[in-house]
Amino acid sequence: MAVSISTYAQDQLEDIGGEAINSSTFPAALCVGDLPSFDNTGPGTSGRASQVFTNDASRNSEAAEDFVVPGFPGADIQICSVTAIGSSGSNDNIVLDYSARLTIYSDAAGIPGTVLYTEDFPGTVADPEGDNAMLLEPTTEMILDAGETYWMVVQVVAPGRDDPNGGQWFWAGGSGAPAGNPWQWRNPGAFFTTPCIDWGAGVDDCGSSTGPGLASSITFSDICEFVDNEVSCIGDVNVTLGDDCTARITPSMVLAGADVDCASN
Predict the structure, then answer these.
(1) Distances (CA, A) of 222 to 34, 39, 47, 128
(2) Is residue 32 within 8 Å of 135, Cβ to Cβ?
(3) Cα dist. 251→73, 135, 192, 259 in Å?
């Protein structure tokens, strides 16, 4: 497939060495997750443009990383915090000076599907140190299903480099190969490269690689509030065995009371 690249294409992808990234560690989250985290810390050596350009919508671009929600099957899980490392190119304080946006998509056969959640965070909250290592803690309840795949997009909302006070943010590559699908990138306004106006255009055309994913981490919390002294046991249970003489026992089959489906043992 032929690739058409604009004169501004140097800002689609940026080589990011260790010295160019102002922070090599993730900030400490105020929210403490109680489930295994998604972790692709790094960073690696390249970054992909991921920004809402307030002075030119044709440049708007999204880099997306997929993740699987941990937890007991059927449990309702909340994202506790998202961290992302990047570089701001010509403006070291681009996040601090403006704002950041977190968007969560459903999975559509290996690419981002429907928008499920989006929230904007003031730059002073997302990156108070001004080091391009963002910490985003959602303030709106967002219930995800344990065991399911979702996609996250982190963007800076700011004018581009042609604005005297603007700049550009690049999401750095992570340190390890993605555990799930190749990360995705798109530019709906076709400013950077025409094949990549939507997800899934191809790994060679849009930079979605089978190599390292995007430098990010997610912590999760189970929103169930099971309290063992607020339930009681069901004395007699009738169980139908399957053909292999086994049966799955769920909490609601043997417990009565509040939030029994939250019990994992």
Answers:
(1) 7, 18, 32, 28
(2) no
(3) 12, 36, 53, 10
Instruction: Tell me the CA distances in angstroms from 165 to 10, 20, 39, 54, one per residue in order.
Output: 19, 20, 33, 12
State the pTM of this model.
Answer: 0.77
State the alpha helices, DSSP H only, in the chain.
Answer: 94-97, 123-126, 203-206, 251-254
pLDDT tens digits, one per residue of 195-252: 788 998 765 557 655 456 888 889 888 776 656 666 788 888 888 888 888 887 777 7
The residues facing 47 across adjacent strands are 14, 172
Radius of gyration of the chain (CA): 21
Given its phi and psi angles, is residue 12 left (phi above 0), alpha (psi -120 to 50 degrees) or beta?
alpha
pLDDT in tens, 6-37: 334 446 655 443 333 433 344 444 556 667 67
Q: Where are the beta strands (DSSP E) in the chain?
A: 13-15, 38-40, 46-49, 51-53, 62-68, 76-87, 99-107, 112-122, 133-136, 143-145, 149-158, 170-172, 184-186, 216-222, 231-233, 255-257
The two three-digit tokens of residue 261, written as one number: 């489906």
How far apart CA 155 and CA 84 sit, in angstroms, is 10
